Amino acid sequence: MAAAMVPIMAMENEMNRNRLRSVRGLGGMLALLLAGSASMAQAQLLDYDGVDDVPDAQVEDDTGVPADTVRQASDRGGRKEPKRPRVTVQPYVEAQQIVTTRLKGDNDSSVYTQLGAGVNAGIATRRAEGQLGLRYGYRFGWGNEGDQDDLSGIGRVRYDLIPRTVSLDAGGIATRGRTSTGYAIPGSNIGDLTNTSSVYSLYGGPSVSTRIGPLTAAGSYRFGYTRVDNDNNYTSVIPGYNGLGGYNESTNHSLSASVGMQPGQLPFGWSVSGGYDREDVDLLDQRYESKYARVDFTYPVSRTLALVGGVGYEDIEISQRMPLLDADDKPVIDNKGNYVIDPDSPRQLAFNTDGLIWDVGVMWRPGPRTALSARVGERYGDTFYSGNLSYRVNRDTNVQIGVYTGLTSFGRQMSNGLAALPTEFLLVQDPFGGGFGNCGIGQQGASCLNPALAGINSTNYRNRGVLFSVSSRADRWNIGFAAGFDQREYISPLLLGPMGLDGTTDENYYLSLMASRRLDAYSNFSTSIYGSLYDSGFPGVGNATNIGVTAAYDRLLWRRLTGQAAVNFNSTKQEGFNSEVMAAILLGLRYGF
Q: What would the DSSP string read from start to end of 117-184?
């Protein structure tokens, strides 16, 4: 999935100094906007004053949330305000009492005692940037309620081994996702956890960038791993559809290299690049392989506008083995809701394309606060488009809108979404379930894993969508908002016939608002509002909605002992089922070390 971004450094040739001055204002725009998608990965970046770090490994555009959609210059080698070195590590333990009641649906109440331990950490130094939230909790149910435990966390870190040359990136998440798109969207992470699965995903790898005379060469490698534990035995298979399946675990590898030159000695910039990606999913022995090679050009038209384009060759193949069928020609499903492989079945192609790829576009930066990029072309055997608009309202507020297309899977979308997380983001914890949300929103941009977690399955799919995000810090408030749309078009072997799902589409609309405010030296208020609408494309499967709000108040009681109070309201609805509204109240204590 990754291909290294190529920052092309300014030429020191005296004969071209005037030309470089004319395009220097454009350079910051290119450094900001070329850093994200594979289609844009090898276009040239013009040098400019103020570069103070080397861009990290580039994230290709087959993510549900591509890097060029959500990254900003502060995380991609753009202008950065000086930062004082900062390292914070805040471990804690807590004890809480939770009462839940259904306001609509089955009229019952539940009581839980919850114990938890976790850590919140952040780092911002010359060589390292990152943030982490991690928590383990155990809930003891009263009466007929069962006990539950849960591990949740989210984090990303970047470390420069050699400044401006070699860096390491890593990230991970532990959360819960929707097991089956055939049933309701899970709400609060307490009480009945049907139709949810534990999801663990991580990625990591090095990137290198170095100058060779007038050229800049770059390379990167990234490893990703995703695992799903369907711990409530809720089937992930939609009856009547082979190929969707459940999920167990997957690994993916991405390798890329590039070399190029920025405008200066020539009136245009150029780069040549190539990459290889592979994913292996144990369910039905699925395999994804992608190889590409391309050349890209950048032509500055003025100080604020450049034309960009690229052409190359791409070869993608997706294959799998077939599920074992019973006497009624229905797939055999194991006790985790996953398909069982037919040991005698040959490998079947689900998707295969090879040939010419191309794209053209523009990049525009009228000032230091505004940047726009847009591209259109052909890739993945279909029309390709991507774009990003970034506007910094002021020092504390940033707005971004991104559009993307790609070819991905659950595992790759999780890894790519983690790689697109900013290294500093708003961390608002759910006091009830201990989770940290599935969106990372910061001044560098945003990345949301909601599209991947809307329905866990092992099938590859085309995805198209848009992501809008706002990050603001003002008057003691920290606010992050993200809203998006994501469409999946599933890919499966035609051999499955009417029981397959090739060409079936579903759509997911989602939003997330997180806000916190320090009221005084001793107290803090935080809230989160979330919502999603899943529009199913499967016949007989109704649409599903989920809306919720949480408000929490913390107050320092004595030294490091903090009192906690929180309320939550959550509403879920699945067509064909009764709707449900749940309320919850929490009182607790937290001790920080």
A: EEEEEEEESSSEEEEEEEEEEEEEEPTTPPPEEEEEEEEEEEEEEETTTEEEEEEEEEEEEES-TTSP
